Queue: 4 jobs
Job 1
Amino acid sequence: MKKLKISKLLSLTVASIMILSGCNANVSKPSNTSNEKVYKIGISQLADHPALDDARKGFEDGLKEFNVNAEIDYQNAQGDIPTTVSISQKFVKDKVDLIYAIATPAAQSAKQATSEIPILFSAVTDPVIAELVDSIEKPGGNITGTSDASPMDRQLQLFKDLNSNIKKIGIIFSTSEPNSQIQVEMAKELAPSIGLEIVEVGISNISDIPQAVDSIVKKVDGIYTITDNMVASAINIVSEKAISNKLITVAAEDSHVNGGILITDGISYYELGKQTAKMAKEILVDGKTPSDIPSQTATNTKKVFNKETLKSLGLDENNNVFNDAIKND
């Protein structure tokens, strides 16, 4: 009888552990580092797409590289901005040690939710215009982070380097994303100095993208994909339609090239995430405050091209543009 009671007790204990494990399925195990303290970090990601996923993966790998022992609660709003508010409120209630917010709406929601918990952002093009920080040099408050502003002048110049006859460049962008509107305005300012003209098409929903591409391909000589979350989520549609119309495409970041865009000379969101992890180490381990750490842009950029897209467009791989570029097969 005694053995039976012990057996039942063990069964109940195992079952309880399994239930608790199920409730915390999104919480990763702490990394095995020399730093004994375990920090609770809440990650709020706006949506699933390669660039934002890379920013998260780079951050998580960076924490391990910089010996930050972290228990991570990863939450994804799946593109729903109001959900980013709920996620931030949850992190405040859970009293996390730091919030890592990926993309502008997630960062804005985190800032609204707390003025005490340190916040780091990434995948934000202009944190000043987004009203996240007072200035790049002196962020102020409890928030700082990394910007995904890309070297747009070099990227637009690639069109001319590939074909000097290119004049009109199409940009598809989400009208609901402040970052995208900022980039369109930047491109319109830069384009005349490179001998280019920007033709823009705004979209309000991801389902608008096929029609938007169809409407622009006959009006332009090439397509430039900016760091727009909605466009990034359907980058394969943009690249396939551009290829079928023999249009050269240039991206603002390398994950677009993985999705079929021809080339970029730009940022890596994975490296940007690691750069942000170093800032987390400075806050959590070294005792700095976010206001002590200026906002940063990417320290490393790289040129990458898609070999299959190059073949589909019938371009010459010996063109000087590709000499110093990494080949993406």
Job 2
Amino acid sequence: MKLKQVTHSRSGDKGNISNVSVIVYRMEDYEKVKKQVTAEKVKDYFHEIVKGDVVRYELPKIGALNFVMQNALGGGVTKSLTLDRHGKSMSSALMDMEIDMEVDVNDSNY
């Protein structure tokens, strides 16, 4: 399943740093998402874009993970000739990440 089926995202960018959060819709999914969406997996997912470190911060009380990606925007939004070098583009891309998780498709909360 795609990550976006159980989470939504917020993002930001500053200079050459992208900040992407992953927030579960249902708190009971937090530990499953935390186990699968690691800093290493996010770094690998964006290996062609993110040239620096990826650090994950955990926010369990709000069911969120925050990923800070260094050297991720081709020099920065105002320096890159690429039109799509914003944090929000990266958050949308991350929502397409495949995760191994089962949910009850009959549950109206999904």
Job 3
Amino acid sequence: MQKKRDALPDRGAVVASLAAFAILSGLGGVLNPYLISLLTIVFLFTFIGQSWSIMLGLGGQLSIGHALFVGIGAYSVAVLNIRYGLSPWFGLVVGMALAAIVGAALAWLSFRFEVRGIYFALLTIAAAEFARVVFSGWEFVGAMQGLFFPAQSGPNSLWMLRGDARFYYFVALAAVFLGVSVTALIRQSFLGYVWRAMRDDEEASRALGVRTFLHKIVIVSFSGAWAAVGGGLLALVQGSVFPDSIMGMGISVDILVGPVVGGLGTAFGPLVGTLITLPLDHLASAIGNKFGIPGLNNVAYGFALIAAVWLLPDGIWPAIVSSAKSVTRLSWFGYLQIEQVKK
């Protein structure tokens, strides 16, 4: 019974997360179109970032080519919808399956030949770049001209996942809620403890009987499938798919910044980090365009990363949680002191 109780998420965290998502849901009905579009992109990159955060933060496997999985999901949705008129839900399922297979194959080849650490990260970059070049010359998927979804006409449709900006806001928010819930459950589960133990000391985990080779393949495959769902949703929101914009290195970098700043392997870290960095990027771009300073957003990104690594190496969200616990402990200590004085 105690183990079952420990496996459940903290009650305070559940209440706080439900309150946060209730507020964000309420904001979806009152914000202006620009903020709706901006927050939709924030939510989608949070969702994709959570997949990357689990892979590194819990599994200890560094990927710098996560755009590969995002692209697979985006093209699966686009091709099946545009070429064959199928619902994007089919595309999301197909994209998940393809990305999981590609991730498992990439992980098997890498770990079978002891390619790990930074060399595995370089391999993911090479795989993403290889896929980008292939898709750039593949006429069936639009090559460099890309694919365009038909313009939205008629009412919002959940079955076809087509609608206005506010419709996608709630779809992306639901995706983030799902991502936070899954991350929290994995962290509290037996699998989460095994992955973290393997991340901290792979040799010791293997000595205790953990099948580390199999677990690493599962982690990469699972993370790839997750990112593919985010890629499919991102393609629908953008209304088009191009090899450079969906599989380029820029996407891979954008995915990792939020979790690094917010807190790797945590449920809320990617959301907090992306809520800070992506609007910062937009603001810096606007200022740079106004005053003729190209690349100002990249400088802002760099400062955000340096500040996070220097001041809060574990991320912003763990620091918030730690501060909240300290305040709670102090309050409880004060209450006990008062009770003792009364007695």
Job 4
Amino acid sequence: MHFDTPLTLECHRTLPEFDLVYETYGQLNDQKSNAVLICHALSGSHHAAGYHSEEDVKPGWWDNMIGPGKAIDTTRFFVVCLNNIGSCHGSTGPTTPIPQSSSEGTPGTPYGPDFPLITIKDWVRTQAMLSDRLGIDTWHAVVGGSMGGMQALQWSVDYPDRLRRCVIIASTPKLSAQNIAFNEVARQSILSDPDFNQGRYLEAGTYPRRGLILARMVGHITYLTEEAMKSKFGRDLKSGKFMYGYDVEFQVESYLRYQGERFSKNFDANTYLLMTKALDYFDPTRGYVSDESLSDLEALKQTLKHTRCQFLIVSFTTDWRFAPARSEEIVDALMANDKPVSYVNVDAPHGHDSFLFDIPRYMGAIRGFLNSPFLGAHSNTDSAKPAATTKPHTQESLT
């Protein structure tokens, strides 16, 4: 979908026009009350479920979650997943030619490093613009994992009247210093690649493949757990013996190089840089809390005070990138405001990547929440009224 209205971003720069690519699944009902927005994570795209074509090797990235009879049931819900601006999967981003209407850069050449830095708040704003175009005033739910969960949280803050339910999975109210450090190592691996050419590699006919591979390898290590890597690879050797060199010897080395190589063929380096920056910048309290002396929790409490949806927060016991304690910060802030929130800490061995796995009780929690009656300010738009109040806070370890 094309937007010819200039979009001024949080960084104070303006895109004169932009495109958003999106996919939909299921049917929008006459009341337009069954729409579910899916927010993608860092390397995700608009292709969340099913296959584009017979040539597709794999279905969409959340195919185990979205579809007929699945947790997000497309026989009941109209599901929308868009590709965020700044991405390299169709929406306007660093690989997009600069339009003639732009006052910056050379029209016709790729934006490259001239593409402005994006924030989570910017993404949510463009998602709201897409909602307007689709005629969806209020989402039945906004759902996201990891970086997608940050977008869902931002939705509840910026547009409290436009969503009834908010599902935040394996996410955090803001990045820790350790997480920012991981992102910085990933960025430096790209920026220091001699083929990066100050971000103008497309014009130079080069590509920072090695930097992108290293960046993905660093990221991938943080998405897994020590136990998962031990179980999957142990200290197994490819050839069964030491080769006394720096080529691949251990199976885990082979796996990381394969994942990095694969990622480098499907992702854009400038996009990786700006998306990790968007993660670093994320702080839903910015713009809502002016008292800098407040603790993080107090600031979050104040920010979430005016939310009007009901929340489901999901974390995973082995996720050390966005540990359960980070999800509990959101839960605590909501509970302090007496907001309707359910929390599930799922026992899963897959680390941060758990949100992508088909874990029965995790899927059951999502299904149950999306199909439950709404208890908040929008309850008059739901056909079913609750027979009893839900628990304001449910914490359990699912096995």
